Amino acid sequence: MEPTSKDQSTAATTTTTTLADTSTSDEERFEDANEKAVDEVIEQVTGLSMGTSPKTNTSSSSEQTDKFVDCRSDPGSDEETLTGKGSAAEESSSGEREDDYIDDESQRDFEKSLSEEERLANKVKAEELKAQGNELFKQGEYQKSAEMYTAALRICPVDFSAERSILYANRAAAKTKLNFKPSAIDDCTKAIEHNPKYLKALLRRATLYEEADKLDESLEDFKQILELDPDNAEARAAQARLPPKIQERNERMKEEMMGKLKDLGNMILRPFGLSTQNFEMKQDPSTGSYSINFKSGGAGGGK
């Protein structure tokens, strides 16, 4: 059966539509969607216009700045991700926030396609976002300030370590105010990775470690602070305060462990009419190790 002129017209239209759809690559559409999502969120939080929608601006890439958005969630969920809406923004049982994850390696790969001019423009925009985050922090808007720092981290080029270090440290301060302490510790760690001599980040992490009862880690941070700043009063006080607390904790843990071992021993020995009462444990003062000896005087059931 020969195709009618109507069929031929429909086929031509379908072919034209298919060709038009392939004129823009998947990668370009993905980047455009991410750029628009980030701009919309920034505008929603700050009321400032941070960019022009790709649909209405066809200028060259040198006239715009490119932004990286993590692909941890669907591209369409970026607004929920940054504004703290939806289940992805909920704090997990460990205190972690999954809405502000920054994948440095993926961001570095993304930035390979940017020109030096675009990278510098992104750095400038990141500084603007940081300033807005700082102002929100001063106003007590800690959630919004954290979101501004996240947006800045997703724009600021990865190799600008000093700038990224400050952004992570500032976000850690906001999270501390929000009582997201495990996540704040992670941000302090990222800040220190970018700048190992960053005293403010070290002090904040050391304090958070102590509050989380991670006393050994806290003491190590305070020792590092004293190496960088021998006159630091907080670190000096911590060096006097923490060792006794660590010793007390270790003794408590040892007693708890010995109690559990005693219960286990009694359970094993009970079928033989014995208990841990039939044994004595002595510690060698030179090595700190223990030896267990059977008490003379015969076996006896113990409780």
UniProtKB/TrEMBL annotation:
Residues 64-75, 105-115 have a biased composition (Basic and acidic residues). TPR repeats lie at residues 126-159, 199-232. Gene3D superfamilies: Tetratricopeptide repeat domain. Residues 1-115, 280-303 are annotated as: Disordered. InterPro entries: TPR-like_helical_dom_sf, TPR_domain_protein, TPR_rpt. Residues 1-23 have a biased composition (Low complexity). Residues 46-63, 280-294 have a biased composition (Polar residues). SMART domains: TPR. Keywords: TPR repeat. Pfam families: TPR_19. PANTHER family: TETRATRICOPEPTIDE REPEAT PROTEIN 1. This is Tetratricopeptide repeat protein 1. It comes from Culex quinquefasciatus (Southern house mosquito). The lineage of its organism: Eukaryota, Metazoa, Ecdysozoa, Arthropoda, Hexapoda.
